[in-house]
Structures are given as structure tokens and as C-alpha cells.
Amino acid sequence: MPVVRDLRVLLRLTNFRRLLAVRLLSQSADGVYQVALATYVVFSPEKQTSPTAIASAMAVLLLPYSVIGPFAGVLLDRWQRRQVFLYGNLLRALLSSGTAVLILVSAPDWLFYASALSVTAVNRFVLAGISASLPRVVDADRLVIANSLSPTAGTLAATAGGGLAFAVRLVSADSDSAVVLLGAALYLCAALASLRMPRDLLGPEQQLVQSRLMSALTSTARGLAGGLRHLAERRAAAAVLIAMTAMRFCYGALTVMVLMLCRYAWYEKQSDGLALLGLAILISGAGFFAAAVLTPWAVGRLGQFGWVAVCAGTAAILEPALGLPFEPAPILVAAFVLGMITQGAKIATDTVVQMSVDDAFRGRVFSIYDVLFNVAFVGAAAIAALMLPPDGRSVQLAVLVAVIYATVAAAMARWSRVGAVI
Fold first, then answer.
1. Would 111 be classed as within a structural domain?
2. At how many degrees (to 10) do helices 270-323 and 2-11 cross?
3. How far apart are CA 272 and CA 267, in angstroms?
4. Of 38, 265, 377, 419, which one's alpha carbon is 20 to 30 angstroms from that of 67?
5. How confident is the model at residue 253 (pLDDT cuts 50, 70, 90)?
6. Domain range holding 212?
7. Domain with 360 in it: what CATH number?
8. How many domains does the chain have?
9. Helices 51-76 & 235-260, crossing angle to 10 degrees?
10. Residues with Cβ < 8 Å from 374, sequence gap 6 or more?
11. pLDDT digits (tens, 9 = 90+) for 351-373
């Protein structure tokens, strides 16, 4: 298989292999932690979950970081990225342990969310750093392949971590704190794995690194403005970021719908809803893997913009066809399709941004990228909260998502036709 051959070629690159190990451990821990939070918030018997409650939880966890995220990106372009992975994962291990204690003692919701918010904020920081570091360990000719395999492998690791968390949670109904501690252990392993790379390997260039924190903070506002101006000058990167943000909105709305379907419409006992949600996540992970196999071939023939257009167009057709029955079997098929098209579009987007943006600005641009993801996801949850009935069945929401996908497909097809060059 070509994907196996490509992976074998990339794995010969020692520093790529080490960066990949950090990604896999970090994202497997993310999967464990996120599933632990989701099951605690959505499936706890004592909680009456609603779309509004889910949207509120997402807002609490994601919006504060959306405010500070760009500023973190400026720091990411000044601090050594290897050190970000080391100390970021150590901090997440500590904070995750604190979350486990809060679950164990049934702490107030505000304290629980504050702890979870801290882990989530560092998580986005680390992932933006990994994306910004990839061009430092892979040459330009292999960047598309690396963007196909590395993030997808990370997503599969997160899916595997989530599956492990679901398995532990199904075996023992009162195991939320133990699952969170498992995530903390994986974060610690990720921190140790980062020590295998030289401290200055991942950049940024030495002349851009500011060792004094206050010196970096005073230039944050100027740096952020410079990053936004740089992105505005790179129209190709700006276009795919807007498209990917719209597709993330769609994915967020459908996520809330599936959560409510699993919690109420398909729910006879707690384990039934959990099992269906876990199966949907695993099937979506298979779609991510399919995207890694298909995307290099598709980009080679259609270009990055053409491939994003095909992904969005496919979703526009299949999402209502599979989703409107609101039955488990077609929804699970849709989970595979949406996993594949979302990851396929993201691979192309990452490549466009990496190739269009200068190394000195990559950290802050990828941090802005993460902020757009967060805002889109929370916005989708808010819209879903207004449109979804308690059981999760909403024809209007399914149609709205299909229209957005179709709009993205048309816009990206136009970019492809006018010959956007990376």
C-alpha cells in the first residue's frame, strides 16, 4: 500500500519519528481525558443533560482560551517548541490529576470546569506547536505526506485513547476519576518523550527566541497584529482557514446532535448510549485513517483546494441522506464519512498554511487556526442548543449543515478553477 510505503519513508527520519511519538502520546491522553469529561458531563445519572448544558460546557472550556490563544501563539514563536512540549505535558499531567480529585470528591461544577479549562488551554498550545514544528523535521517534498500521516496518526491515537476510556467506563460505572488519572499518566509519558529531541531542533530560529518572559509579553500585541497582517497577505492560507472553520462549525453541530441522540433517543440504559457513542467515535477514527490513505493521491490530482471542495461537496450530499432518518445505523455510516472528509480537508488546510506562512509566523498562525476551531465549535453548539429538541432530532439543523457544506464546496471549487498556487 502506498500509505505504508510513505510511512516507512517518513519513519526513517529520526526527528520526525520522535516528534510523532510526542504527538501520539499527547493525543492519546487527550482522547482519554476528553471522553472522561464527556461521560461525566453527559452520562452521569444525576445530571439532566440538554443541548444548552452541552453548549454551556463547551463555551466554558473553549471560549476563554479563544481570547488568550493568539497571545499564546506569539509566545510559541519565541519559546523553544521542544520546551513547550516538555513543560506543557508536565503541566497537563499535574492538572489532570487535580481534575480526578475534583471528580472523586464531587466538587462544584465551576471548580471542575476551571480545572478542565486549564488542561484544554495547554492542549491547544501543544497541538499548535506540533503543527508549527513539522516543517522543521520534514523537507518540503514530503510535507503533504507528513500532513496526511502525522495528524491522522494523532487523531487515531486520540480515538484509541477514547476507546480505552470508554472500555474502562463501561466496565466500572464509577471510574471517571480513574480514567482521568490514566490520561495524566499518558501526558507524563509525552513529556518524557520530548526529551529525546535536541532542545533547539524545532525552532523558532534562535534570533527569534526571547528567553525573558516579560520581554516576550510586552511584544505580544505587536506580534499578534503582525501575524494577522501576514495571514491577510497570504490569501490562499486565509481562504482555506475560513473554509475549514465553516466545516468545523458543521462538525460541532453534528457532534451535539449525536450526543443528544445517544443520551436520549437511543438510550434504554446508560451502557447503551455510551456504547453507541464509543462506536461512533471509533468509526469516525476509521474515517480519519481513510483520509490519510486517500488525501495524498487526491491532492496530487485535484490540488489542495479541489480536494477540500470535493470533501465539502460529499458531505453536503451524504450528511442529510444519512442523518435525516435519525437512526443508529445510517448515523454510524455518516460518522465514517464525516471523519474522512473532515480529516481530508484538514490535511490539505494544514499543508496550505505551512507552505504559505513563513516559519517566524507559523506558531501564531496555527494558534489563530486553533482559536477559529474553538469559536466555530462553540458557535455550532450554541446554534444546536437553539434548534435541537430534547431527543436530538432536528431536520432544520441537518439541512442547515448541508447548506454550509455546499457553500464551502462552491467557494473552494472557485479557488481551484482560478488556479490558486501554493
1. yes
2. 120
3. 6
4. 38
5. very high
6. 9-417
7. 1.20.1250.20
8. 1
9. 150
10. 62, 63, 65, 66, 69, 124
11. 888 888 887 787 778 777 877 88
